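[INFO] parsing input record for Sugar phosphate phosphatase
[DEBUG] input buffer:
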Amino acid sequence: MMATELSVAGVPPSLSAKVVGSFAYFTVKDRFPTIVTKVIDTIHRNKNKFFEEYGEDGIQAEKQTISFLSKLRNELQTDKPLLALTDGLQDVESWNQYLQRHQRLEGDQESVSWFKSPWLYVECYMYRRIQEAFWLNPPISGYDPFNEGKTQGFFESQQAVMALCTYLEGVKKCMDELSKNQLLEHFNKLLLVSLWGNKCDLSISAGQENSQKINPLEVLNSLQPFILVDESNMVWSTLISAQKQEQPGKATPCRVDIVLDNAGFELVSDLVLADFLVSSGLACKIHFHGKCMPWFVSDVTANDFQWTIRQTMAANHKWMSKSGVQWQRYVKEGVWCYHDHPFWTQPHEFCDMAAEAPDLYTTLQRADLVLFKGDLNYRKLTGDRAWDHTVSFDTALRGFGPAPLCILRTLKANIQVGLQQGQGEKLSSEDPDWMTRGKYAVIQFYSPLSEQFN
Ligand SMILES: O=P(O)(O)OC[C@@]1(O)O[C@H](CO)[C@@H](O)[C@@H]1O
Ligand SMILES: [Mn+2]
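[DEBUG] output buffer:
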């Protein structure tokens, strides 16, 4: 079950900061310390709030958390070995076993370190250590240091959110009269808005910027040339064929699972897509999957999910609040549900999900379609490995395929599979940073039921 063997035949090595000058190297060297420093600043700025809420205990916890985080920053900047977790949360054992497996594989403990180990592993570990710093310091254990940035991202995207909700409510009004082609057109648009919504994450900019300022629907055409692979037609046929299979005895006909990425505008774009899927009858049930702790700066937690729906409901804009009220109703009625399995905040590649989190794998198997959002999910789907660009998406998945699945991702890490011969080279010569600036995107699809499409 070792997740990162470098020796598996035909499987390239994991991306790592040990390649000096690589994107992983710069991320660990520059972006990690910046993120930890921002967390420290945020806690410090909120000192008075902790005092008001918890008195002297709050101040003590603030000091102690900052000291843990400064230690963490020092460890990563000086390439110290990774340490076992000590906070007693439910996932500690699994994290520590993962560390031991790496140590065994490397032959010594020193070699499992920030700059020598797989980038995916150390990046997830950093966020888990931030969580540990809080958890070990009640009464502020539940504090989300990224909350301010996430809520700001939402408020700064208000115009775009209003435009999107107005569009959604317009479509819903005439849903019964839409031809299949018109329905497909709206589906494509909302899928694209959700795709480009992934430009809005806070981790890539180390917390600088994650809002959508312009009407997303108006820029879709101009963004079309930047979609490197577009298999959205397979997503549509999956939804249509799932409907055909609908039987009276089947408990949950056409269920779509959405593995969320970022809060703020991206989450709204996902909720709008989910609303469209349900109100058009393309799906009957949506299961959302989020994170159970603050993660990669802007990722959605249960709190962000509920907060976003409440804020949308409370908006002083007719169509926005109408959308929010509907979303709340979906949640109440169980048409929408939110889950946060600990696997999503572990460092595993998704090909290890069946072994590491069989219950989650079984859950996803019940879906007719799983939509994965964002760059981190792409990295985990493909194992964050140095694949050749022309390797097929299903090869890179290495057997992961609980259900037909699609990834909607803007490129923010130097990994990309499923391209045409020469396409990667051409992009590299035109724009050396094509894989890391969120300028390009992919919609890639895989189905374990592929015979259905042959
Ligand atoms: O998953 P997301 O939100 O699209 O992106 C997360 C991300 O910004 O975090 C990492 C940066 O350290 C990159 O791999 C990736 O681009
Ligand atoms: Mn993210």
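[INFO] Residues 115 and 272 are 40 Å apart (CA to CA).
[INFO] shutting down worker
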